[in-house]
Amino acid sequence: MTIRNEPLRAAVLGATGTVGQRFVTLLAEHPWFELTALAASERSAGKAYREAVTWIQTRPIDDAVATMQVQTIDELMDGDFDIVFSALDASVASDIEPRFARRCLVVTNASAHRMDADVPLLVPEVNPDHLSLLASPEGGPILPEGRALPAGIVANPNCSTIGLVLALKPLADAFGFERISVVTLQAVSGAGLPGISSYQILDNVIPWISSEEEKLEIETGKILGRVHGGTIEPAEVAVSAQCNRVPVVDGHTLCVSVDLKGEPAMEDVREAWRSFRAEPQERGLPSAPAQPTVYLGDDEPPQTRVHRDLGQGMTTSIGRLRECPILGYRFVALSHNTLRGAAGGALLAAELAVARCGRRGAR
Ligand SMILES: NC(=O)c1ccc[n+]([C@@H]2O[C@H](COP(=O)([O-])OP(=O)(O)OC[C@H]3O[C@@H](n4cnc5c(N)ncnc54)[C@H](OP(=O)(O)O)[C@@H]3O)[C@@H](O)[C@H]2O)c1
């Protein structure tokens, strides 16, 4: 076994895509992880990253990364790295990710393994204990004065589900609920590259996103569930989801109704969001926002352009709490889909896994 001092060497799979570019940007200045390898499809392999990528971020590519050579997945398999971040299409992730997960921790945004019994579907503020599903590796990195970094797959949930469960977790802890109705307004970056054509999305709302409603409805119960007998016992919650693609670049908006138990006062509901803190905040993890949920106000709805970057894109902003004649309460939430909903959320998950077995982030 190797004893690793900081930083841990990170490889990114799917590095040229929408989410892969976010990983590249965030890893450029990450204090614990150093980007050492990039992989994408055969179309990109063999090229310098700058030549392979259609760069869509607002800040330029880091100079050191721009000249790195993009590798194929097979080439990368033989490389030296401690942790893998995956931004692959689900269609290819299904076979590729388990190969890497035999030797190290793989934190993925793809949906391929999200519902596997031994895979934590992790939102670090919501279900940190689900990390206990991971196995210890043979020959994996040992963190200084700590235990081995576990091997296996940790999955990021669907990008809309992440915003939903962050808004719901304080309510689950304080009151409980059984039924949720959610209507989403989802950004075009959620469709990846090259994405939806401008002719399809400008001056339009598309009230259908393939498999998205099913993901919201199934994943929520697993994330809010509890570890029991080495597996996850899903929470008994019925979710009705309707998903829409709208002409917004980044940021998914969620209009939510929920049947909170015990008929709580409106101020108690607001306070649950305002006071919510969890393990990532207590440990001071590098990607943890000071506040995972912010209540903006009864008359101040979260707006994509104005609020999506709160907490470096890691905070879920909430507003317009009011009574719902059907389920009791309703509100609007907003979450950044490629930061909290993808690369930022995956980095936070990896930081939590590292902090739980090493000294880093010690209180
Ligand atoms: N966009 C979001 O907001 C979001 C949020 C949460 C989760 N996700 C999930 O995250 C994953 C990536 O999404 P994205 O939006 O970044 O997609 P994307 O823009 O389409 O990027 C896909 C990436 O996968 C690579 N790839 C495709 N086929 C491959 C193969 N056979 N071997 C190796 N690499 C291959 C592509 O490389 P080339 O450039 O070489 O083709 C590209 O780097 C998906 O599973 C998606 O569902 C996306």
Written description of the protein model:
This protein has helices at 18-27, 49-52, 63-66, 73-77, 90-101, 159-174, 198-201, 212-223, 266-275, 279-283, 304-307, 310-313, 339-357, and strands at 8-13, 33-39, 70-71, 83-86, 105-108, 152-155, 179-186, 226-228, 231-233, 238-245, 252-258, 293-297, 316-324, 328-335. With 363 residues, the chain is α/β, with parallel strands linked by helices. The chain folds into 2 domains: 8-157 and 343-357, Rossmann fold (3-Layer(aba) Sandwich); 159-336, Dihydrodipicolinate Reductase, domain 2, CATH 3.30.360.10. Strands 3-2-1-4-5-6 form a 6-stranded parallel beta sheet, sandwiched between helices. The longest helix is centred in the C-terminal third of the chain and has 19 residues, at 339-357. It is globular and about 60 Å long. The mean pLDDT is 94. The structure holds NADP nicotinamide-adenine-dinucleotide phosphate (NAP). Residues 14-20, 40-41, 43-44, 73, 87-90, 92, 109-111, 159, 189-190, 192-193, 337-338, 341-342 line the site of NADP nicotinamide-adenine-dinucleotide phosphate.
